[in-house]
Amino acid sequence: MRWNRDFSFRLVLLALVFLPLTLMGYKIFVLRYPLDVLLPTVSYRVDLSLQVDGHGGDVSVATFLPRSDYRQIIDEGQNSSGTFLFSLDSEGENLVATWTESNFSGHHNILYTFTVSPRYVRYLLPAGLKIPAFYPAAFTPFLESTPGIQVSDPLIEETLQQILPGELPDISTALIAIHRYLQDQIENRDFSGYTDAVTALKLGEASCNGKSRLFAAFARKLHLPARLVGGVILEQGSKRTTHQWVEIYVNGHWVPFDTVNDHFAEIPANFLTLYYGDLVMFRHTPNINFRSLYKTTRTLGPRPELQDSLARSPLTILNLFGLFEQVGISRKLLEIILMLPFGALVTAVLRNVVGLETFGTFLPALIAAAALETGLWWGIFGFLIIILLGAAAQRGLDALQILHAPKMAILFATVIILMLTMTVAGLKLGLIALAHITLFPVAILTLTAERFAQVQAEHSFAAAARRLLMTVLAVAVCYGVMHSSVLKALVLVFPECLLLIIACDLWLGKWVGIRASEFIRFRRLLQKEAP
Amino acid sequence: MRTRDWQAMVRWLLSPEAGRVLGMNRRNLGYVYPCNPRRFLPLADDKVLTKEVLVRAGVPVPTTLGIYRHFFELRRLGEDLAPHEEFVIKPARGRGGGGIVVVAGRTGASWTSISNRVLTVAELRRHITDIIFGVYSSELADAALIEERVCQHPELEDLSPLGLADVRVILLRDRPVLAMVRVPTRKSEGRANLHLGGIGIDIDPDTGRTGRALHDRLEVRRHPDTGAVLSGRTVPFWEEVLRVSRMAAEAFPLKYIGIDVSIAGTGPMVLEINARPGLEIQNVTRRCLQALLVKRGEQS
Question: How far is the C-alpha of B46 from the C-alpha of A38, rounded, in Å?
Fold first, then answer.
């Protein structure tokens, strides 16, 4: 009987370890899943905010929005412009967003949010590549002289003679010389205005747009197609400054150059491309005061492009996103639901191996999951407020001496009111993160508030507070684990990991060791025991 | 961390069987779950059921004066209690001593509690109503148990004037393994539970003499409230205490238990049986339960 039970336990444990490991091995070694998919990558959330002050009349504001391409993936674009009508149009390669409102006066804030998963790209220019004599007709605009890029100005040719003496250089030599000249001889200045190529050359100083035009002028003069690129350098924080660089058409590729920041044939991951061409970022009717701001938040996240490439495989959960979206479950929610077993395992370890006394077994995992939108600190803040005030309410109700079920009903209502109050307060104070507190699991918070009051009544406030502190600690650890993008990617690509989690739980279920906290509690006995 | 520490940590994680100290995990997995089948747990958790089992087996317990399960029974509460001067009201499924009222005397139509509170019939009825409503048991309904007040042996009264002291005996398969005396303090409000502030005192199992005492995990020589010396005393009826616990354990289908025995002038009485006895007894007696339990297991 006893042997039988041990045997079946081991069999189940073995199966739960062996099966998922086999499947993982099959995916990695036979199906050749790229393991890079597990590594997190930097992505940015950009909040573009356009502030408009009007005094009547029709108002229109336009700017470029980014498109996904070979080096940046744009996702989750969301417009919240209130009464302003939002429309999107394609203008050549560019995507133009326009917001309009008729007879507008007063102040209005237009917000457009999107996420960017960019990557760094570098081109190797082969030596000895000759400048082509002919290009297809479509390239004519990239070789033309314009008012800003004065290709036929004698000064351009003269300077080019100086920096590239001799006959017909190859492409790589020419670009290195131009890049070095602009990098070393033309000083970087922080002008915000428009500078044409010749002015930049004559003054020997320019900002990004002047340098880019001068680069384009040199390149076009050498019969290399060149175009300007407008965008934003993504850095944590808020900024108004936009950026321009230049791309040269070499051997079938548009190769990027930035002579302000010394990027030769490369583009850093945090360059967000917004438009191509010698254009201005914002256009608006003249009857308004206008301000723009890019707010960037840097996050570590999964690699959507690699995940999408695996979505066709029936052995991952990635292909199920569409299915779940039909019933209104977002990708984010599904990801966090899949992380709950990890959180529960972490809590079990904290309780049985470390010896933390937490409120509830799943509470820390659930709170950590709910803190997805609030962030850890606001999540903990809201959690503490709800539990402490809820417990105070419970103590008050105890004093009134009323029956249990109605008392719990009142406590439930109190917790809901507290949460709504915090949401409204969060919105009023501009603490959007705190406002998401409404997503917290109400029933479990109510029970926790009751348990807190119970411990307080049976023992002391200090005992209850100690337990709450340990719970918060467990929430923080769960948060760290559950929001790890590596683990998220792991469970999406290898959903069989959940069986491994169950195996760990099972092993933990038979673990009879002394808890870390008991090492402290029984330290004298343990010292005596040690040889 | 040094390599040695890492090795120790890995050893701790992979072979937890090695220790002699009993931890919470092993208490549950090694003793409580296999020895105390779930279906018998109510026998320990409900004092009315506990008493039924013990009385049937002839184990001495405080005399039951009344059991109230329904509100209509409370109409005759005044008449029921009229002949009694001293008694104790307990919730059958109370936890940690909550809801216990000790009545110590009578003045006219009302009684006084040990804390000198005057209690009328109406007040007692109200308290019992609360008990029946499950206020003290975190369940929907409970029963109120009224029993004789145990007047503890003078020897113990001297040691523990602030409440009923008891002897906690841990038994595995009907044999005592480890025992201590538990003494209430002002902080513990008359309750003997160590985590509520009671004092635990070691007992020499052969002689019944008290040894080292622990209060709030610190070693003390004297009672913090009365100054009474705690060690070097003899527990009266010590052999009898062990015999009574053995009897109680044999009568019970639970095989890993902590029995609380209090000692009246006439002899020991079993007050309570605990199916998940605490581990602090190891710190009080400075003895490792796991080692004792293994030895005890090898004997049978």
Answer: 54
Measured from the Cβ of residue A309, the count of other Cβ atoms closer than 10 Å reads 14
Does residue A122 have a pLDDT over 50?
yes
Which chain A residues are closer than 8 Å to B100 by Cβ?
none
Contact criterion met (CB < 8 Å) for B286 and A528: yes
Pairing assessment for the beta strands B199-203 and B110-113 based on DSSP bridges: unpaired
A285: pLDDT strictly greater than 80: yes
A-facing residues of B in 34-93 (CB < 8 A) are: none
**What φ, ψ does residue A425 adopt, rounded to 5°?**
-60, -40
Instruction: At A245, give phi and psi (nearest 5°).
Output: -140, -170
3-class DSSP assignment, residue B251? helix
Q: What is the structure's pLDDT at A126?
A: 87
Interchain CB contact of A403 with B (< 8 Å): yes
Q: Show residues of chain A in contact with B287, CB under 8 Å.
A: 525
Whether residue A437 contacts residue A419, with contact meaning beta carbons closer than 8 Å, is answered with yes
> Are B139 and B78 in contact, with CB atoms under 8 Å apart?
no
Task: Tell me the residues of chain A between 473 and 512 that have a Cβ less than 8 Å away from chain B.
Answer: 510-512
User: For A57-73, how does the pLDDT look when each residue is reduced to its tens digit (9 = 90+)?
Assistant: 899 999 999 998 888 88
User: What is the residue-averaged pLDDT of chain B?
Assistant: 88
Residue B290 clears pLDDT 50, i.e. is over it: yes
Specify the amino acid at residue B259: I
User: For A40-44, A451-455, B101-105, which range has the lowest pLDDT when averaged over its residues?
Assistant: A40-44
Task: Find residues 100-159 of chain B whose CB sits inside 8 Å of chain A.
Answer: 130, 133-135, 138, 140
Do A514 and B130 count as a contact with CB atoms less than 8 A apart?
no
Q: Is A1 helix (H, G, I), strand (E, B) or coil?
A: coil
Tokens coding B256? 């890993």
Q: Given an 8 Å threshold on Cβ–Cβ distance, is A525 in contact with B19?
A: no
**pTM (two decimals):** 0.73
Please tell me the total number of residues recorded for chain B in this structure.
Answer: 300
Tell me the average pLDDT across B183-197.
85
User: Per-residue pLDDT averaged across B31-41, rounded?
Assistant: 91
- Quick one: pLDDT at residue A531? 46
Q: With beta carbons under 8 A apart, name residues in chain A contacting B138.
A: 454
User: Which of A108, A110, A82, A86 has the alpha carbon at shortest distance from A97?
Assistant: A86
- Give dist(CA A156, CA B185) in Å, integer: 97
What's the rounded mean pLDDT across residues A461-487?
90
Residue B249 confidence (pLDDT): 94
Picking from B130, B133, B283, the nearest residue to A525 by CB comes out as B283
- Give the tens place of pLDDT for each residue, A246-268: 999 988 899 999 988 889 989 99
Residues B25, A528: C-beta atoms closer than 8 Å: no
Kindly state whether A401 is in contact with chain B, defined as any CB-CB distance less than 8 angstroms.
Answer: yes
> Rounded CA gap, A160 and A154, in Å?
10
Rounded to 10 deg, the angle between the A461-482 and A442-458 helix axes is 150
Q: To which H or E segment does residue B264 belong?
A: strand B256-264
Distance from CA of A440 to the nearest CA of B (A): 25
